[in-house]
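Catalogue entry: protein

Sequence with per-residue tokens
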Amino acid sequence: MKIRVIGAGLAGCEAAWQIAGGGLPVELYEMKPFRFSPAHRSENFAELVCSNSFKAERRESAAGLLKEEMRKLGSVLLPCADKCRVPAGGALAVDRDAFSRTVTEKIRCQPLIRVCRAEVVEIPQDGITVIATGPLTSDVLAAKLSEFCGESLSFFDAAAPIVTAESLNRERIFAASRYGKGEDGAYLNCPMNRAEYEAFYAELIAAQRAPVHKFDAADPKVYEGCMPVEVMASRGPDTLRFGPMKPVGLRDPATGHRPWAVLQLRQENRAGSLYNLVGFQTNLRFPEQKRVFGMIPGLEHAEYTRYGVMHRNTFLNSPKVLTSGFAMRSRPDLFFAGQITGVEGYMESAASGIMAGLNAARRCSGKAPLTLPETTMIGALSRYVESGGMGKFQPMGANFGILPPLAEKIRDKRERYAALAGRALNDLDRMLKEETFR
């Protein structure tokens, strides 16, 4: 029986890898380079269009636990990320171009994966299919999916600008991680006093925003996790100071005091020649980005290799149409993976690809769908996709709040998170010993 994976992003690559890992041939379809979405530029697979960070590595964090579970399930992306990492404090961040090239080479070298460079505009009616076309699914296929599924939702995502290291004014910037954690120099900090911040804030909320593309909804829903900085700022003058520009855990060596506000810059590539503006996703016009962000100390003459952009994300109303195994309720040979399912985040998307790929392979082999323990992060995200939360279905990223509570109440947050992570990994190990997951 033929198995196809449509889309060679993070989720699609993981899905194809899992299918091939089960000894089954798979066709991986990718429309690039014949057609690019509004946010993609590279011909390679697993292109990162927003941040270059996969978030925290500590297993006692939700993001770290998710990655540890993915490693146990044989992730193809995480070993590639390890080879392409750049300093990022306690986070796993990568040189995005090197990462994409490494993943592409890894996929191409798997003999059971046949890469098909072609755009898919119809939902296949035969064989087993994993649709992992991402939040920027092409208009034609998105229309087909909307018609087939009966309902789809949209929200907007925003990417932060990237600047060159050599263009930064190092006299105004200091290198430090919050509270001294992580590698020295993983973050560069642009400190602002009160007057500087208030002047910057006034210009930011008044700056001209770029028009929304015509293919996007007239009344976009902005997802909180990717809120454009200008939208966040419009909620009040102190919103940024308690958000992406919070100064806690930092002390400016030039003054000996904590700044009024701080913009952090995170290393973007292995060479350390590029930095991105952490938390500064934006939809300002490009000249406005250069003008307004140039008011931040250290960025007066910054050269931008990528300005912030804002684009459409499309996701299914998954609780109505998908199971926890990422299969269609009405058509169990059709699977979905990635942000189109309503998971939010790079690794969350990749994890859903692992599960969709595993279950596609299991269906081909006549096995029942695999369900991970609800105490695991992947298991909890899978159940969220199937059942949703309270109210209208919205994207969800990894967090400890979606895990079942511990039998014994632990007041200390760090100890509680460590216990939740320990329980998750123990339960996953126990399941993997009892059952062959492929």
